[in-house]
Amino acid sequence: MTSRDRAADLPDGPTTDPATARSTAAAAGPATALPAALLSTLEEIVGPGHLLRAADLRAPFEVDWTGRWRGEAGAVVRPGDTAEVARVLALCDEHGVVVVPQGGNTGLVGGGVPRDGALVLSLTRLDQVGAVVTRGAAGAGGGADTAGEVVVGAGASLAAVQVRAREAGLLYPVDLAARDTATIGGTIATDAGGLAVVRHGPTRAQVLGLEAVLVDGTLLDRLHPPRAAGLGYDLAGLLVGSEGTLAVVTAARLRLVRPPRHLAVAVVATDGIRAALEVQRQVAQAVGPLEASELMTRAGLSLVAQAPGVRAPFVPPPPAALLVEVAGAPDVGEALSATLAEVVGHVSGVQDAVVGIDAADRAALWQLREAHTERLAARGVALKLDVVLPPAGLAGFIEGLEGLVRDAGGADAEVVVFGHLGVGDLHCNVVGVAPAQVPAVEQAVLGSVVAAGGSPCGEHGVGRQKPDWLARVRPAGDVAALHAVKRAFDPRGILNPGVLLPGSLPGQQEGSADHLVEDQQGQGPA
Ligand code: 2HG
Ligand code: ZN
User: Fold this and answer.
1) What domains, with CATH codes, occur in the chain?
2) CA–CA separation, 339 and 326 (whole Å)
3) Which of 20, 171, 252, 260 is 20 to 30 A (C-alpha) from 501?
């Protein structure tokens, strides 16, 4: 299994692109310079050592994991509990200081990266993981397959929560390759989907309650709301997917499920996406429900085949491969193998299949999929376009993707598409596109998704990358309502401006591509 580390070993130093420079010049909004009096009060609140001011200490918080998104923080504050978060926010509200909440900094759309001297509010010290409460003792909610629950701090890593659930014989049903570093708060902020989304739904489906701090320091305690307090607006629900723009999530009560007793994984080689979709349909019908259904394509399989320790099942890599995971009785592996024996050679375009039944073989097959992001990062800074296609549009989109990129000026670019096929969420990575062509490539790819009836934003969220796209696909009335909600929660606009909401950063222009493109983009393996 792979994990991602902080961006600490990426090249230091903020870079500024023309779009950001334009935004900064036009800024007339909240103050972003951090006054000395504020800094010393912040240090009193969190204690010495938890207000980071020196450039080398701030650096890992100022660039995302991929190196695409950069900015400058005035300081980084690391509160140790909810009360400290409340005092920090109240102080910033009083001073009109912009705050950028940040978790494990594994996001891929720039949603946690500061700019213009904002204060980074790092939640990683809120990493407590409570005791698991099993269903009988737990409160209501969570649906029939909820077997227990756990209360965790926003800064707890996804892996720490998974381990705690496992120790109690249960499962936290969200999983990502970045599990060791990604925080629960970050996954709530983006409503992350992940590798089990087809079976258990996204993070939103796992959140039973939330604790958050409003911008003026007021505590919003919706961790264990009593029934009567459930009347009216779902305030906790509003915060899931809000990307740090409405309030700061400090803790969550998460649902746990019973883990499947027996699992089997297969990777099926096909001549393209259409055959992969047919395999997905037949396996779901014969052995389903699917625990996971992930698409890989030749370009990505070729990259991961070079990774140390990876066992490539098909040489040369096929045009497409589907990873399916199923659960069931002790003979689920045999059932999967029998279904695939019917499919390989009989269904047009299905070339070969390998099945993993014991834990080591299953992990080896999963590694093919999970190694994608790290191998891509070793190639350069990818332009990441995470999108969702409706079932009828999936095949046409994938088949046309390379042509779209080429015609938009990315003739020399490498296009790697993979993702959560079971829910139509595709991660299109384009490596080696010249910075000047990035807006055109983005426009071509995202525009074609919209034309096919899909969403230009998938599980990675909107972030800094796609606020204008949100405005293009949501009706004007919706967008006005989003702005009204934002004003109600954050009247001065100091929480994560420029993220999610179109036009929330002074000077941000319709259609502007607010990218920070790295110099080394596309220069081959680092
Ligand atoms: C995944 O599904 C992540 O592995 C990362 O969402 C996707 O690197 C990417 O584009
Ligand atoms: Zn993903």
Assistant:
1) 18-122 (3.30.43.10), 133-257 (3.30.465.10), 263-376 (3.30.70.2190), 380-461 (3.30.70.2740)
2) 12
3) 252
Question: H or E segment at 261?
Answer: none
Element (H, E) at 211: strand 207-213
Question: What's phi and psi for 29, nearest 5 deg?
Answer: -90, -145
Q: How far is the CA of 515 from the centre of ligand 2 (A)?
A: 21
384 lines ligand 1 (CB under 6 A): yes
CB of residue 379 inside a 6 A radius of ligand 1: no
Q: What is the CA radius of gyration of the chain?
A: 23
Does residue 371 line the site of ligand 1, with CB under 6 A?
A: no
Q: Does residue 26 surpass a pLDDT of 60?
A: no
How far is ligand 1, taken at its centre, from the CA of residue 325, in Å? 18
Residue-wise pLDDT for 400-435, tens only, equals 999 999 999 999 999 999 999 999 999 999 999 999
Cis geometry, peptide bond prior to residue 491 (ω within 30 degrees of 0): no
Give the HSE-up count for residue 474: Cα atoms under 13 Å, Cβ half-sphere.
18
- Angstrom distance (rounded) from CA 424 to CA 428: 12
pLDDT tens figures, 325-376: 999 999 999 999 999 999 998 999 999 999 999 999 999 999 999 999 999 9
Task: Name the closest-CA residue to atom 10, ligand 1.
Answer: 427
Residue environment code for 464-501, b if the CB has 16+ CB neighbours within 10 A, otherwise e: bbbbbbbbbbeeeeebeebeebbeebbebbbbbbbbbb
Burial of 9 (0-12, 13-18, 19+ CB in 10 A): exposed
Mean pLDDT over 173-181 rounds to 97
Q: Which residue has the tokens 């496992």?
A: 166
Please report the pLDDT score of residue 8 as a whole number.
29
- pTM of the shown model: 0.90
Is 427 near ligand 1, meaning CB less than 6 Å away?
yes
DSSP string covering 319-354: SEEEEEEEEESTTHHHHHHHHHHHHTTTSTTEEEEE
